[in-house]
User: Fold this.
Amino acid sequence: MTNKKQRKSTRLTTILKSVLVISTILLLCAAIYGVYLTKQAEFAVNQAHEKIDGRENSSKRDGKVQPLKDNLSILLIGVDDSEVRQQGADASRSDALMLATLNNKSKTVKLVSIPRDAYVYIPAAGYQDKITHSHSLGGAISTIETVEELFDVPVDYYVRMNFNAFIDVVNALDGVEATVPYELLEKDEFDRTAVHLMPGKQTLNGSEALAFARTRKQDTDVDRGKRQQELVQAIVKKAASMESVLKYDDVMRAVGSNMKTDLTFSEIKSFLYYLSKGMPQIDTLTLEGEDENLPEGYYYIVDETSRQLISEKLRKHLGLPVTTSTELETNTHE
Assistant:
């Protein structure tokens, strides 16, 4: 009887030891993977980091802002610097341009898409032209100054991403959901007419998402901007989900050589707080205007009332003084 009890006790001890060993191994693997991801992320961000000479902070700020302490803004610049276009990163035009403001107290985001053909003043050139030309006239700093001039708000940080990075990020997240408004036959990243989408809500891969973001054959630049805003929200939503945590390694690999930003690794890590409670509230804004054919070519003439109202909303969201008399929106999240 004693031997039977001893054998039973020995088997139980062995099982407990095995469970303990397996649990320890799993915890170690998780810890090692966490360290690996952090190192991968840090390497990718360091590779992507690009400091603009002579610019410590926006000229519209008294000093440099601090993520999670201050309200701030980020300019998202999408460029086509592919071999097909035979353009370098700095010589390329901006194909997508969005300004996001982040409110530290409410953890909300306001996102405005700027039509690529918007007729605006470009400080680097000293004259008005399509905003898409601002990047080819002076790189990221030229586009930053143009957007600051347009909305009278500081641009605290920028992220410039080419098509390869966008495609790889979407693929690394196993695609993103979007609602395709109409049947779409569009060129892919290699300028081949290879993307064919039918109307309806669906999961898009990287190439399909890029075509969805770029097409403007059947609608307007404003609609195009709204599609791009939809994709940004879809990417943030997917990135905020628990199922995407183990995909961050692939995401970091994607952005390393195809993205440039003046954000440091520690600053980027602090932004994860905005995703710590899931999808943040993102309010999208539309810059109204109308198409016009001028002697110099086709332009999108910005509606001054719309521009002013967006300027006020962004300034209010950033906690900056609003000096005009235009009626502001009432929003409890601001």
About this structure: Residues 49-318 form a domain with the Aminopeptidase fold (CATH 3.40.630.190). The chain is about 40% helix and 25% strand. Residues 33 and 246 are 9 Å apart (CA to CA).
